Amino acid sequence: MDLKLKGKKAVITGASRGVGRAIALGLAAEGTDLVLGAAHPDGVAQVAREAEALGVKATPLTVDLGDAHQVTVFMEQAQKALGAMDILINNAGIFPQGWCQDIPLADWQRTLDINLTAAFLTSQAFAKTNLDAGRPGKIININSQAAFHGSTTGHVHYAASKAGMAAMTVSMARELSPKGITVNGVALGIVHTDLIADSMAAHPGYYESRIPIGHVAEPEEIANIVVFLASAPANYITGATLDASGGMLMR
Prior knowledge:
Blueprint: E1 9-13, H1 18-29, E2 33-38, H2 41-52, E3 58-62, H3 68-82, E4 87-90, H4 105-133, E5 137-144, H5 146-149, H6 156-176, E6 181-188, H7 194-202, H8 219-229, E7 241-244
Parallel strand pairs: 1-2, 1-4, 2-3, 4-5, 5-6, 6-7
């Protein structure tokens, strides 16, 4: 199947490791030029080098997605580096732990800022730029089964941010799809990344017991799904949050 991704241009947040890195390399293997954003300059620079070794242009940018001004500047830099944007993947997120009665307001706000507000701001900038240029595009929001099931291990702020992302995905798809920009999400379950490492260590065996398919996902398994959603064969999908949770969600 020809995914028709060669020569496309994509922006990915949270691209320095884990799922973001795997998505970046998956798109690079298909010939997509990249802007890679992350808070970790060394990590995102390394991923850019790995992507360029596959024959594409990859620009690493350092950004604190909890800072709205930095998000705006990041998208301006991305547009300048790529010349045009075909794909936006909102992958960045944080996963702090805290029981609802104990979560400091600052932790609640930081989680919403990075997991939800930043995705809104990048999507808003992407949509405005592409609509002004009459250019189609694809927005893909990396979500979680917690958006639909909630949290059972002290992550109410994370679950709330992801529930907001699910509603944002549908709402933006309703507005933007008639104008040529599709908006979709991918709801992850448990993936072998740094994001979940501390929680897995604190609850040994708990997460694995919840996965009907029988194993914790590798980042590359998720990347394959995201690359498909970014491709031409997925053009008829919009407003969907695909279940990529190994059966944890089943919706």
